[in-house]
Design brief:
The complex is a heterodimer of chains A (451) and B (231). Chain A has 451 residues and is mainly α. Chain A contains 17 helices and three strands. Classes of the chains: A mainly alpha (451), B alpha/beta (231).
Chain lengths: 451, 231
């Protein structure tokens, strides 16, 4: 029976076309991922080269004043991107994976990022996770919506019922054929991705694969539940497509709207303003209080003083820059905390909605999520601070520019390792799918197979 | 073999079947005549277990359908008015599929044998059913019934839409099945065919079985007269 069901499935042109469309979309998405990874690699390579050149050039231009030199010199920190991110680009296309900063105030520099084609940001990338989350369900719906109703509407059902003591078994096999065909396409894509994007086969990739499989399984479970109502084809199609619109578009947008309303971030704007005011205004103020505040922050530099009666000194200049960060610190912290809270709400919502959960999980595994970006920013703050502490004493003592090994300042790298939370990643999908299957079972039992 | 006892079915106010009593023995062909809506199909659907009677009951081979629909299904084969099959599968594959649903597994040769017995030309056996005529599909339906080796055969307007030759071949097959002990219940509009093939003929009107006649006691013309008077 199974062989004949498979034959019947494969001979149906529409169904086969569906699989091919899925495969084609999948290949396009892999290509987009490949391009994204390569572009990122190129940016990093070029920046590494440019940073060396730029430092050398600045050293040549400003050989006498280290304070002035460090006004210009930028140091880059790379947020290393695993190749898996090629499958799930997530927020990596908005948040930069490389940031170059001078030792001047940091707050402003955090948000001066690359220019991006705004069209990309609106639509998002058609990466693998998009194909998985948006397109796979559509094909699954097309495969399953008329599982029983096509038999009823085409007249084969009465013969099936008169022949079989257990027509449910036949339906299960029919479903299984469809499930297997979609899984084959999914696994084929992931296999190609593994080699094409050079993704190491580790626990993270395994979790990525399992999440994808469970997400597809969820849609089959939902389709099975809808089929169990034994409505006609058009009603089934309507119910399933509405579920798709709700789960993939309306609910994510709704939850986004909720988080934005619950946790507005005026801080994003005000911290930039405060930071700017924090130092700009200092030009018009007496120099001593600024320097005094700086000494409060860094008692270890108390021995360095602003030369009395002078209008300008590098100590004062960098103290003033420091004030930009110090005065925006509370706001910046609040901003980070709110982003964290928004993140938490999304994850909690994800527990109930497989689409959101899958997107967040895939992004987390690919280190393209908000968490990774926040960690990177934290690292950037440390990196910036370390550079300051290294150069401050040299600036304040006007150390010789030639005394520093400028060639040694290459790019620094932040490499986060994805934590695989097996239970938290897989369990919600399992539970919801299981729930659909149990409900379907009850419905089938109650409805008995009718003619 | 097939037995209906005080069988009734009502839909709200409307009575589809009213106290129907009917027994069809092994090897007997029983034709039910009647207008559309007289209750012929409802009777067949009660035997199939597709609808639940409002009163009375049906049994097959002594087993009540209401209590044990899964077992009675094994004794039954059914050919609907229009046999619809899977268009993407061939005649042989359709037969194999429906037989496997009933728990039978036949080899290629056996399947072809059933189809030939049902009168389907050999050349068509391995063609997709999508290109079949109604008569050809009907023959696959018969082959499915034969392959199930059922004790009772239920037919709903089996010859409607068949050309006279196909209709005649169909009657031949029914007679042969009956000779081998199958009980046949057939709902039909075709008075001539009923007289030709059936042992007994029942005429139904508004859910009642009005008269039952032995086919050998009546000519086709007399049967037509009786039918027209009844309905």
């Amino acid at each position: 029976m199974t062989a004949l069901l498979i034959k019947n499935f494969l001979r149906s042109k529409g169904l086969l076309t569906g699989l091919l469309v899925l495969l084609a979309a999948g290949f396009v998405s892999l290509n987009i991922g490949k391009y994204f990874l390569e572009k990122n690699k190129e940016i990093i390579e070029k920046t590494a080269e440019y940073q060396q050149k730029s430092i050398a050039r600045n050293v040549a231009f400003h050989p006498k004043e280290i304070g002035l030199l460090l006004y210009y010199v930028r140091f880059g920190l790379v947020n290393e991107m695993p190749n898996l991110a090629g499958l799930s680009i997530g927020q990596r296309d908005i948040n930069p994976s490389l940031q170059s900063v001078t030792i001047r105030n940091l707050e402003e520099q955090k948000y001066t990022t690359d220019l991006q084609n705004p069209l990309y940001q609106m639509l998002g990338n058609m990466d693998f996770s998009f194909v998985l989350i948006y397109l796979f369900p559509l094909i699954i719906i097309a495969f399953c919506f008329n599982l029983i109703s096509e038999e009823k509407e085409e007249g084969t059902w009465s013969l099936v019922l008169s022949q079989s003591a257990n027509p449910l078994k036949m339906l299960r096999l029919k479903m299984l054929v469809r499930y297997t065909s979609v899984l084959v396409v999914l696994l084929l894509l992931l296999l190609v991705a593994k080699f094409y994007l050079v993704i190491p086969f580790d626990a993270t990739f395994l979790a990525f694969i399992l999440t994808s499989i469970l997400y597809v399984s969820f849609w089959f479970s939902l389709a099975w539940l809808v089929v169990s109502f034994q409505k006609n084809s058009s009603q089934n199609a309507l119910i399933l497509l509405l579920s798709w619109v709700m789960l993939t578009i309306v609910l994510p947008a709704g939850i986004n709207a909720i988080t934005v309303t619950l946790y507005p971030v005026p801080e994003a704007f005000s911290s930039v303003l405060e930071s700017r005011d924090g130092y700009h205004n200092k030009w018009d103020e007496p120099k001593e209080p600024t320097v005094a505040k700086f000494h409060q922050h860094y008692p270890q530099f108390s021995q360095y003083r602003h030369p009395e009666g002078k209008d300008y000194s590098w100590l004062w200049y960098y103290a003033m820059q420091q004030m930009g960060d110090d005065e925006a610190a509370t706001n910046a912290q609040a901003f980070k905390e709110k982003l964290q809270k928004r993140n938490t709400i999304s994850s909690i919502a994800g527990l109930f909605f497989p689409t959101i959960h899958t997107q967040l999980s895939l992004n987390a595994l690919s280190l393209s999520d908000m968490d990774n970006y926040l960690h990177f920013i934290e690292k950037l703050e440390g990196f910036h601070e370390q550079k300051r502490l290294h150069f401050y004493p040299k600036i304040f003592t006007d150390a010789a520019v030639s005394g520093e090994d400028w060639g040694g300042f290459g790019l620094d790298y932040f490499k986060e390792k994805a934590n695989v939370h097996w239970l938290r990643t897989l369990f919600p999908l399992l539970i919801i799918s299981g729930l659909c299957l149990i409900l379907a079972k009850m419905k089938f039992r109650k409805n008995q197979m009718a003619g | 073999m097939l037995q209906a006892t005080n069988l009734s079915k009502t839909y709200g106010e409307q009575t589809a079947l009213n106290n129907l009593n009917l027994t069809i023995h092994e090897g007997e062909i029983f034709a039910l005549l009647g207008q559309n809506g007289a209750g012929k199909t409802t009777t067949i659907n009660c035997f199939l277990g597709f609808i639940e009677p409002s009163g009375g009951g049906v049994s097959i081979n002594g087993v009540s359908v209401a209590d044990n629909a899964l077992e009675t299904k094994k004794y039954l084969a059914y050919i609907p008015e229009t046999v619809m099959l899977y268009a993407n599968l061939t005649g042989t594959e359709n037969l194999a599929f429906f037989s496997s649903l009933a728990g039978f597994s036949y080899n290629e040769e056996q399947l072809s044998g059933f189809l030939s017995k049902a009168g389907l030309q050999t050349a068509a056996h391995n063609q997709r059913v999508g290109g079949y005529s109604k008569g050809m599909r009907q023959k696959v339906g018969i082959a499915i019934a034969i392959a199930k080796k059922a004790k009772a055969l239920l037919l709903d307007e089996p010859t409607s839409g068949l050309d006279p030759k196909a209709s005649n071949e169909f009657s031949e097959i029914l007679r042969e099945l009956a000779k081998n002990g199958t009980a046949v219940l057939m709902a039909t509009h075709d008075i001539f065919r009923a007289k030709e093939v059936a042992n007994r003929i029942g005429i139904m009107k508004e859910g009642n079985l009005v008269s039952v006649i032995d086919a050998k006691d009546i000519s086709a013309n007399e049967l037509e007269q009786l039918y027209l008077q009844t309905v």
